[in-house]
Amino acid sequence: MRTARLGRTDVEVTELGLGSGPLGGLFAPLDDATAADTLQAAWDCGIRYFDTAPHYGIGHAERRVGALLARRPPSAFTVSTKVGRLLVPQNADGRRDPHFHVPATHRRVWDFSRTGVRASVEDSLQRMGLDRVDVLFLHDAENHFTHALEEGYPALAELREQGRVGAIGAGMHDTALLTRLVRECDVDVVMVSGRLTLLDHSALGELVPACASRGVSILAASVFNSGLLAEAEPGAGSAPYDYAPAAPHVLQRARRIAEVCAAHDVSLLQAALAFPLRHPAVAGVVAGMRSAAEVRADAAAFATAVPERLWEDLRTAGLIDARAARGR
User: Fold this and answer.
1) Can you tell me whether residue 138 is helix, strand or coil?
2) Which pTM value belongs to this model?
3) What is the CA radius of gyration of the chain?
4) For a disulfide at 175, which of 23, 37, 207, 220, Cβ 3.0-4.6 Å?
5) Which CATH number does 13-316 carry?
6) 241 annotated active-site
7) 3-class DSSP state for residue 177?
8) Closest CA to 13 of 286, 291, 295, 306
C-alpha cells in the first residue's frame, strides 16, 4: 500500500488508515475477539496507520489498538491519538456517551491545558503500551477553540520539540477553525472529519487551499459520513448521516451519486474512499472499521481504480463540486 509523508516531518502514513471509533463500541457493542480480528485483518491487508483517541469507548479503542501494535516493531506502523478529554473514574452506572456502547466506568472531562495535554498523552501511552506516539491531534475543539489554540497547541509543539511526538495538528469537523489553526500555527497535519466527502465538500472552500499553500497535510476521516456512503443502496439500511438520520434531500443526493457510480461499475464505497485522495494535499483516508469482513471489503475497494470519467460525469451532473481536484 502506498504511503505519504505528513507535512515536513518524517512521519509517514499508509493512504488507507484504520479509524478505531468502532473498536470503541461506536453505535454498537464490540467484543475483544472481534476487535482483535479486525485489527489483524487490517494489518494483513497492508494498513499500517491506526488512528485512535481516549474518547473512543473511554479507552477501549486505545487498549485494543495497543494490543496489536505491541507485537510489532515501532518502525513498522504509525499511530495517532488525540488530546482534549481526560478520562476520570466514576461509578459504572454513571452517565455514558450515547454513541459508545461500553460500561460507563469513566467520564470525559474537557481539558486542553498544558497539564491536561501531557496527562492525556501519558494515559494514552500507558493504555497502548507505547513509549511515544507518531501523531497527536487536538480533538473536537470546536467549543473550546480559544483554550485549545492558546494552551493546547503550545503543549503539542513542546512535545514535538522534545521528540515525544512526531507530528501535530487537530482533528475536527469545523473547517473554518481548522483553517485558522493552519494559518496561525505551525502544524503538520489536520484531520478533517466528514467535510471532504462525496456528500460534503466544505473543506474545499478555504481549508484545502490553506493546507496546500502552507505544506500542511490533510487526513480525511469519516469519509462515509457515519455510514451512509458505505451502503450499497443509500437509505436501504439504518446507516446514519453525520451521527443522525439522513434528511430526505441528503438521501436523494446519495442515491443519485450511487446511480452514476453504478453506470461505471463502481460501488459507492469505492468512490467514497477514492474521492478525497484526488487532491495532492490529502495524505490519506481514515475509515472506521468494525469487523475483519469490513476491513477486507474496504481494502479491496480502495485498491480498485476508479475511472476518470466517473468524476467528470459527477461534476457534469452537479453532484460533486467543480472545485474538486481533477486527480494527482
Assistant:
1) strand
2) 0.96
3) 19
4) 207
5) 3.20.20.100
6) no
7) helix
8) 286
